[in-house]
């Protein structure tokens, strides 16, 4: 049995990814917030909803997916039942030290998933407390594996991983939208333009992951001398595309 506290944007995305990719909904118990958001999701996905944190006592692993403002009160309630469990917090402002401070000797982890977890294609960075055993890590990985990749990172890199993998789906959405605008400008209908741009993004990502070549070499492969692709790449550079992407990450990092 696994438990969730909070099923908003990221909690809901992880739960959806788990169940849609084969995790048994009967093995998931969720304590929701004040709105009917959790029960509406439960109607679609079939997991159990409870009203109190202590009703998650049968869970071996509990995921905290509330925002910073609710974290302290959730940890106070969780402390009563947490001693024999693995606690994984998605809350951005959490840290292993803060979780340890509030929960005592409990094994804790801080993880930052991205929204593609919803379709089993997520990328989640995670930092474990020192007392997590390999067995414990395997247990968490076996759950999060339903939602995509889980990668252990040092905690001081969790923030930038969260930006590069977590904010950038929105950056890529802007790129896809712009590309389809360009397709429409040159005569494609909107539906086909989106299909082409999205299909390209999925395919290029898959190729980049599966190829032995790095992305720079993949670009070199498709830029023939004097050809249309290198002219497009040069235009991207002329208009500061690479710098715009770096500045977007800088902006996301500097709050
Ligand atoms: N969104 C992302 O892509 C993402 C990615 C990685 C990490 N994070 C981090 O995850 C945290 C949550 O973000 P979010 O975008 O999912 O926010 P969100 O959509 O506002 O979801 C938070 C949920 O927590 C619930 N909640 C509040 N108090 C609760 C309580 N005492 N017990 C149980 N549930 C409670 C709320 O339920 P009600 O609405 O029903 O009150 C709400 O649905 C943030 O710290 C964020 O930085 C987000």
TrEMBL record:
EC number(s) on file: 1.5.1.2
Function: Catalyzes the reduction of 1-pyrroline-5-carboxylate (PCA) to L-proline.
Homology family: Belongs to the pyrroline-5-carboxylate reductase family.
Domain of life: Bacteria
Domain Pyrroline-5-carboxylate reductase dimerisation, first and last residues per copy: 155-253
Keyword annotations: Amino-acid biosynthesis, Cytoplasm, NADP, Oxidoreductase, Proline biosynthesis
One matching Pfam family: P5CR_dimer
Compartments in which it is found: Cytoplasm
GO biological process, one term: L-proline biosynthetic process
GO molecular function terms listed in the Swiss-Prot or TrEMBL record: pyrroline-5-carboxylate reductase activity
Provenance organism: Companilactobacillus mindensis DSM 14500
Glycoprotein found in the keyword field: no
Keyword check for Acyltransferase: no
Every Pyrroline-5-carboxylate reductase catalytic N-terminal domain range: 2-89
Main location: cytoplasm
Cited PANTHER family: PYRROLINE-5-CARBOXYLATE REDUCTASE, PYRROLINE-5-CARBOXYLATE REDUCTASE 3
Known catalytic reactions: L-proline + NAD(+) = (S)-1-pyrroline-5-carboxylate + NADH + 2 H(+); L-proline + NADP(+) = (S)-1-pyrroline-5-carboxylate + NADPH + 2 H(+)
One cellular component term from this protein's GO annotations in UniProt: cytoplasm
EC main group: oxidoreductase
Name of the protein this chain belongs to: Pyrroline-5-carboxylate reductase
InterPro entries named in the record: 6-PGluconate_DH-like_C_sf (IPR008927), NAD(P)-bd_dom_sf (IPR036291), P5C_Rdtase_cat_N (IPR028939), P5CR_dimer (IPR029036), Pyrroline-COOH_reductase (IPR000304)
Involved pathway(s): Amino-acid biosynthesis; L-proline biosynthesis; L-proline from L-glutamate 5-semialdehyde: step 1/1
């Amino acid at each position: 049995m696994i438990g969730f506290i909070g099923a908003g944007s990221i909690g809901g995305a992880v739960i959806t990814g788990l169940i849609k990719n084969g995790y048994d909904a009967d093995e998931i118990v969720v304590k929701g917030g004040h709105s009917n958001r959790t029960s509406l999701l439960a109607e679609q996905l079939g997991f159990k909803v409870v009203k109190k944190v202590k009703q998650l006592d049968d869970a071996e692993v509990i995921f905290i997916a509330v925002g910073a403002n609710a974290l302290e009160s959730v940890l106070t309630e969780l402390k009563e039942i947490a001693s024999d469990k693995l606690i994984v917090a998605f809350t951005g402002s959490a840290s292993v030290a803060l979780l340890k401070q509030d929960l005592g000797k409990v094994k804790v982890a801080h993880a930052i998933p991205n929204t593609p977890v919803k379709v089993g294609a997520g990328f989640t960075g995670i930092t474990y407390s020192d007392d997590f055993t390999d067995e414990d890590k395997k247990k968490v990985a076996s759950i999060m594996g339903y939602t995509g990749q889980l990668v252990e990172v040092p905690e001081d890199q969790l923030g930038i991983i969260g930006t590069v993998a977590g904010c950038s789906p929105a950056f890529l959405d802007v790129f896809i939208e712009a590309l389809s605008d360009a397709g429409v400008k040159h005569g494609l209908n909107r539906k086909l333009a989106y299909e082409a741009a999205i299909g390209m993004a999925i395919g290029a990502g898959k190729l980049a992951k599966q190829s032995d070549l790095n992305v720079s070499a993949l670009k070199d492969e498709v830029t023939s001398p004097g050809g249309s692709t290198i002219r497009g790449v040069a235009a991207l550079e002329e208009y500061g595309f690479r710098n715009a992407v770096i500045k977007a990450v800088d902006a996301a990092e500097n709050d």
